[in-house]
Write a structure and sequence with these properties.
Layout lengths: L2 H7 L6 H11 L3 H8 L3 H16 L3 E5 L5 H9 L4 E6 L2 H10 L3 E4 L12 E7 L8 H10 L1 E12 L7 H20 L2 H13 L4 H9 L3 E8 L4 E7 L3
Parallel strand pairs: 1-2, 1-4, 2-3, 4-5
Antiparallel strand pairs: 5-7, 6-7
Helix pairs in contact: 1-9, 3-8, 4-5, 8-9
Length: 237
């Protein structure tokens, strides 16, 4: 059994060492590859998140699993008066985030954030919760660092329903790893990605996770026919 197949068999808990190593290897070409694989749609998804966050008027924002900083950069642009911190447990990714203009970065595990309770008005995670060792613990930690009345937002891939589901599954499992392998030389990392998307709870299943973590006013916004989704939850006092 290959390492990717082992990851597919592990269930919801991800292997942190494998994930860190995989992202470190693809850091140099991560941004380009994401844009190619999504035909640029990921840019539009992050812009929508940016508009939503700006409407909340936050003064302090934490972007967990910021990677190369795409979402943190968008929030810096639309919330110019806010302090935006991008954290990630992969230092190689943060090197690129810093070079691209993320003002504040911090190497930190999303399951053990080095911040006091209620330190932020908003916490976001884009395409990162899915890679954490525990999705529920990740949500709980996001909630912990946000003040009462603040918001937690998760942007991640999801599975479309109806007629789109089968062709999307073919693309995800057969096409995406091959294209990504050509672009990065690390097709194995994207084979893992495909499996992680299929395992990750989406739609109502993710809202149930938000409810279990104690969030109020839970919302689910499908994007691009359901291939990605935004989830939000209010932190109660």
């Amino acid at each position: 059994m290959s390492r990717v197949e082992e990851r597919r068999e592990t269930g919801p808990d991800q292997d942190a060492g494998f994930v860190r190593s995989a992202f470190a290897k693809i850091a140099d070409r991560y941004v380009l590859t994401n844009h190619v694989l999504s035909a640029g749609t990921d840019i539009l998804w992050r812009k929508k998140v940016g508009r939503m966050v700006a409407e909340w008027g936050p003064k302090r924002i934490l972007d967990v699993a910021t990677g190369t900083g795409d979402l943190a950069l968008e929030m810096q642009k639309v919330c110019p008066e806010a302090e935006v911190i991008g954290s990630d447990f992969c230092e190689e990714m943060l090197v690129h985030a810093k070079r691209r203009g993320v003002r504040e970065t911090l190497v930190a595990d999303g399951l053990n954030l080095p911040f006091e309770d209620g330190s932020f008005d908003v916490a976001t995670v884009a395409f990162g919760l899915r890679n954490m060792a525990s999705w529920d613990e990740g949500l709980a930690e996001l909630q912990r660092v946000v003040r009462p009345g603040g918001q937690v937002l998760v942007l991640d891939f999801s599975l479309p329903r109806g007629v789109m589901r089968r062709p999307y599954a073919f693309y995800l499992n057969k096409v995406l790893p091959k294209v990504a392998g050509v672009l990065t030389g690390e097709g194995e990392a994207y084979e893992y990605l495909a499996g992680s998307i299929e395992r990750f709870p989406s739609g109502e299943a993710m809202l149930e996770r938000f409810a279990g973590a104690g969030f109020a006013e839970r919302k689910w916004i499908p994007l691009s026919g359901g291939i990605a989704s935004i989830y939000t939850g209010l932190v109660e006092g």
